[in-house]
From TrEMBL:
Membrane-spanning parts: 12-33, 39-58, 103-120, 140-165, 171-193, 214-237, 249-267, 279-295, 301-320, 332-358, 370-388
Keywords, comma-separated and alphabetical: Cell membrane, Membrane, Transmembrane, Transmembrane helix, Transport
Highest taxon of the lineage: Bacteria
Stretches assigned to coiled coil: none
Any one of the GO CC terms: plasma membrane
Name by which UniProt lists this protein: Arabinose efflux permease family protein
Transmembrane helix found in the keyword field: yes
Length: 404
């Protein structure tokens, strides 16, 4: 007589809620101070904008470059420990900015903040993976994105109010937000199993690097992050040209506002009808279409419509990419896989920042303003086609390795 499989363990709602709440706090604390660094140091103190650009670039490089190690260490030490350590380090980095009155002290505080992010970023995703299963994982990642975007909306508003009081107060509040997240995680997140096997830890990175399927997946996803970075570069330039300095706020408002309102129901609707592969590929194509359509619009309202289409694609890509990373990962090495997968954001975003402005300037100089948008559309099409081919059989076979 066949034995019925044991019922799946009920999800740890408290721990999942803590991760979602902490994600809101992390994003809120970040956007509370980072967008206002240029306002304080450049507009108020008269620093060169290039200096603040260098500070922000180094923070991103530190965070994205070292996230791969933070994820691998989470497999050995446990995700909870790395998240808590990262929150404390990030809190110290942002709070220290309030006392940074020279370029190098600000740079040191920024490096500290980047290191904190590298410690908690991949372990946070590994914790979500450990607490969910294939039936609810993408939805939890979607909720993480919803509350993260809510933090992105709320953070700058509160930051602007605090900056009118004092920048040091702003920095202290930003750091304190991460300490609140520390308390939330410490009280609610269990000690998720560190993998004692010899493959866990830094040696797990070698396992990931030899996983050709996942390396190709990560490389292709970099193409999407090249597109997503244009919100800060080419889209911001075009919006400003059409509507003046306040245009960028509208762009971010539309993007984040739609994500807060629509990401979760949109993903649930998509999951009822399509496979993860089709959702991911469709999301990339929507984002590519949104950027490509900017070649035809000459009005700010038209640009915002393109931003909305672009953002709808992103709402599908982010949670599905995270869920597929968990699906493709080998059991016990979720941190290493998420850490390695974060390189797609670092590489794609870095390349996108580098070529976005160059393509925009080239298009203006040569009298071909459609050039950057058609280029981005083509990059998105190639990325979507590559992902569709790569994930054909991979998603089905990878599910076996997930501990649901």
């Amino acid at each position: 007589m066949p034995v019925s499989p044991a019922p799946a363990a009920p999800p740890n709602i408290r721990a999942i809620a803590a991760l979602i709440a902490s994600n809101f706090l992390m994003w809120g604390g970040f956007f509370l101070i980072v967008p206002l660094l240029s306002v304080h140091y450049v507009a108020n103190l008269g620093w060169a904008a290039a200096l603040i650009g260098a500070v922000l670039a180094v923070r991103q490089i530190i965070q994205q470059g070292l996230t791969v190690f933070g994820g691998a260490l989470a497999d050995r030490m446990g995700a909870r420990n790395l998240i808590l350590a990262g929150l404390v380090v990030r809190a110290l980095g942002f709070a220290a900015m309030g006392w940074a009155d020279t370029f190098w002290t600000l740079m040191a505080a920024s490096v500290l903040a980047g290191l904190g992010g590298a410690l908690f970023d991949a372990p946070k995703n590994a914790a979500v993976t450990a607490l969910t299963n294939s039936t609810n994982r993408s939805r939890v990642f979607s909720l993480m994105g919803v509350f993260g975007n809510l933090g992105m909306v709320v953070g700058p508003l509160i930051g602007a109010l605090l900056l009118s009081i004092d920048f040091r107060t702003l920095a202290l509040v930003s750091g304190s937000v991460y300490l609140v997240a520390f308390v939330v995680v410490a009280l609610s997140l269990p000690r998720l199993g560190a993998a004692p096997g010899k493959a866990a830890g830094l040696s797990g990175l070698g396992v990931v690097a030899r996983d050709r399927r996942f390396v190709l997946f990560t490389t292709l996803v970099s193409g999407y992050f090249l597109l997503s970075s244009q919100l800060n570069v080419a889209v911001a330039l075009r919006a400003t040209a059409l509507h003046g300095e306040g245009a960028v706020g509208w762009v971010y408002g539309v993007s984040a506002g739609l994500a807060v309102a629509l990401q979760y129901p949109l993903l649930r609707l998509a999951e009822r009808r399509f496979s993860p592969r089709r959702i991911l590929v469709g999301g990339v194509m929507l984002s590519a279409l949104g950027l490509g359509a900017m070649a035809t619009t000459q009005t700010f309202a038209g640009l915002l419509a393109c931003v909305a289409l672009f953002s709808l694609g992103g709402m599908l890509v982010f949670p599905t990419q995270q869920a597929l990373t968990a699906s493709l990962a080998k059991k016990g090495l979720y941190g290493a896989y998420f850490g390695f997968g974060a390189l797609s954001l670092g590489v794609g975003g870095g390349v996108g920042n580098a070529i976005g402005g160059a393509l925009y300037d080239w298009g203006q100089a040569t009298g071909l303003p459609a050039l950057p948008w058609l280029s981005f559309g083509l990059i998105g099409l190639v990325t979507a086609l590559g992902l569709y081919r790569t994930l054909g059989e991979s998603v089905r076979t990878a599910q076996v390795g997930v501990a649901d």
